[in-house]
Amino acid sequence: MTAPEVHDEAPGATRAAWVRDLLTRHESIELEFVQHRDSYTVHVIVPDDPDVEPEVVTPQDDAAKADVIMGLLRSNLPTVCGYVSTVWMSPTIHSDNKVWEFEDHLLCARCQKALGEHANRAFEHPVPRTSAEDES
Ligand SMILES: [Zn+2]
User: Fold this and answer.
1) Does some domain include residue 64?
2) Nearest to 107 by CA among 15, 21, 48, 31
3) 73 Cα to the center of ligand 1, angstroms
4) pLDDT digit of tens for each residue in the chain (136 aa)?
């Protein structure tokens, strides 16, 4: 078994290939999305590999403990196109946000391209109801 790749530092093509391979091996993976705070572009979060156990970190000193606490307040989420999104767990901080429903046209074109044959899975998400649909 090889060590998991650190995909947020991998070159784009390598990361995209890794994600496509993961999605091929695991049909059940649900993609997650994060919306950029200013552009509203929706990026696809690099999924966790279910075959890799999450690393359990035991902080050894105060600085390491502070890092763990910061990690609870703020997540750095690598996305499929290479953009690393920062999400703060505080409504008062203007940051990117994880989203569950969005309009298709907001989906990042580079994330779609990187997903290749799995791009359709990025469109399996709820779309917000429009006022036109409410009338029917
Ligand atoms: Zn993207």
Assistant:
1) no
2) 31
3) 23
4) 454 444 455 677 889 999 999 999 999 999 999 999 999 999 999 999 988 887 887 889 999 999 888 888 999 999 999 999 999 988 889 999 999 999 999 999 999 999 999 999 998 877 887 655 555 4
